[in-house]
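#onboarding

Welcome to the new folks! Below is a worked example of what a typical request in this channel looks like: someone posts a single protein sequence, and someone else replies with the predicted structure as tokens. Don't worry about understanding the tokens yet, we'll cover that in week two.

Example request:
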Amino acid sequence: MKPTQTLLAAIGLLMASSIQAQNTASNSGCAVGAVSGAIGTDIPPTYQGPPPSSVDKRLVGPLQLITAGTLDIKASTLTLPLYRGEMTNGRNVWYVITDTTDQANAEALGINFSAKLNYANTGKAVRNATLRKGGLLVFERGTVDFSPALRIAGIDGARPFPPAEATPGSVGDADYTPLVRIANAGGHIYNAPVISFGTSATAINFPRGNPDYRLVHDKVVAIDTTAMTVTLRLTQGFSFAKPVLYLSFDASVELAAAMESATFAPAMNDVGVGGDEGLFSAVERIFGFINGATGCAHPQRQGFNSALLDGRSPLNVFGGVPFVATDYSPLWDLNLAEWTPRALSMGYRSRLIEEFQILAFAEAGHITGPGGAEYGSTGIIINCPVVFRFL
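Example response:
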């Protein structure tokens, strides 16, 4: 295990203890999830009817969005099928599949459908692959080096973000992107993040956990190359006031990759940002905060400062997710907010969990971009497929 492994949790990870202890007062600021609907009533939880989401996925209630894998809510992990592909030179590429532009295949495979990914095929943002006999994908370009050690250092207790040093634990070359277009299978685009590269099956086989992070993605909890599965750590956040769990795989800049324990994928920079729901936009917005309240004991806890100090999720807020909106994309355009000195002095700072709530605070001038800049896109893209919603 890397010396900096204890810092993985500090940068956008969901720790199992945050859910296990979500009903304790001392952990109220890190408690994100559904609570019993029987609270405040005179009937036990067993008398509650089934959640509306069991009747219609568009209605309120718990819903697993990526059903291809086994979700463990208590451990905050998802176990997905592991696939082996090759580069044209025969080097192994180990990857997972989470999203596609093929709606029928998304339903058949239990992954997310994202029509917006069709608009990501600009510059180097999508790489090509060819399907060969036996289901083998052969990738034309894009390599990942998993040997670097994830490192976050130089955290100032008074102003934790940004850290003085942020080095991602895996780095893609100039051609690496998780998005893959299968040329001879309908031309559909798949979100296929790389979990390990250039390694043998025996070298990365850690079915009982404790993987070697010099060989695999930092979000891997366990990997089994016999059963061909990989267990991945989830992160918690919100979307339209619904608490969600999601995966973080890649980011377009090194700082974000380190903060998310993700792979630096420079080719993702060729995806356009700032368009959100506009024509030909491949992204959705993710809303982050720099200087929200800190500490798990604070019920309004949120933001990067707190994540760096206490090792829990920053509680980012997503735009549209499947079955809540039609504009879902796993590519999230980071809009980063900072509470203004005036807002802080007047006690306005609170946990914001819904897109239009955030935009209303920005319109009123209570939050701005970093350092008082105009609020909006930072130009940073993070590959974060949504896995589960609690409500």
